[in-house]
Amino acid sequence: MTARRGKLIVFEGLDRSGKSTQCDRLVAHLRNRGQRVEHLRFPDRTTPIGKMINSYLSGGSQQEDHVIHLLFSANRWELASAISTLINDGITVVVDRYYYSGCVYSAAKGVVGMDLEWCRQPEVGLPRPDVCLFLDLSAEEAAKRGGFGLERYEKKEMQDRVRELFAELREHKDEADDIVVVDAGCSVGEVEEIIHGLVDEACSLADRSGLPLRSVA
Ligand code: T5A
Ligand code: NA
């Protein structure tokens, strides 16, 4: 019998839905259970490309819309083979935002020709998650968790469009199978409990099927 591969678990959702909070908790929980886990986040602001993205998001520099879209995607491709290697070595990878954000935030800008389908193309071939936990929070609940920060996309009009496009992406034939919607409006502990159950289910399904790590199709 070959050793079990690690799993690719992604957190997505609107701003302030609790992605980073729940990522940290899941990583700690899996490590407590003795699993080997790597914690990643996109954008990864530490690489040269990530530094360009950080400067763009914080308003320190401008980028043409197609260019910044491709930089976000390139920032994932920089780590793609490392992610595959970790998973094939039996290490589970938990990721805070992934290509789903990549598609919807760029498409939300309304640039002619940059629709969801166009934005999705550079992501094809990336490691495909075993499960994407979409933390769903109403605009009202999100507003209670504090106002917008200073980063480029933290504006109401943009956020409303992002919300609509996430809903559209969840209907896409490939993403529909991978995305699980989690009600992120309850307490941190309650959301965490729900996530543990969903992660256990997705991981045991992957183990039972013996499916190798797939690619975004
Ligand atoms: N982007 C990203 C692109 O355009 N293209 C891409 O390809 C990618 C990957 C930066 C921006 O880049 C864009 C999207 C973004 O605009 P980021 O750095 O991930 O992305 O964004 P952040 O601003 O760091 O994260 P968010 O604002 O989205 O917040 P989180 O991580 O969802 O929420 P979290 O955990 O920090 O919690 C927010 C607050 O709520 C509280 C927390 O304590 C915190 O104060 N909280 C709760 N309160 C009550 N009940 C709960 N259940 C709570 N859970 C958390
Ligand atoms: Na975050």
Could you characterize what this model shows?
By secondary structure, the chain is an alpha/beta fold. The chain has a single domain, classed as P-loop containing nucleotide triphosphate hydrolases (Rossmann fold, 3-Layer(aba) Sandwich), CATH 3.40.50.300. The protein contains nine helices and five strands. A five-stranded parallel sheet has the order 2-3-1-4-5, with helices on both faces. The model has no long low-confidence stretch (mean pLDDT 96). Sodium ion (NA) binds next to α1. P1-(5'-adenosyl)P5-(5'-thymidyl)pentaphosphate binds next to α1, α4 and α9.
With strands numbered from the N-terminus, the spatial order across the biggest sheet is 2-3-1-4-5
What coarse outline follows from CA principal-axis ratios?
globular
Mean pLDDT: 96
Strand content: 5-15%
Tell me briefly what this model is.
The protein is α/β, with parallel strands linked by helices and 217 residues long.
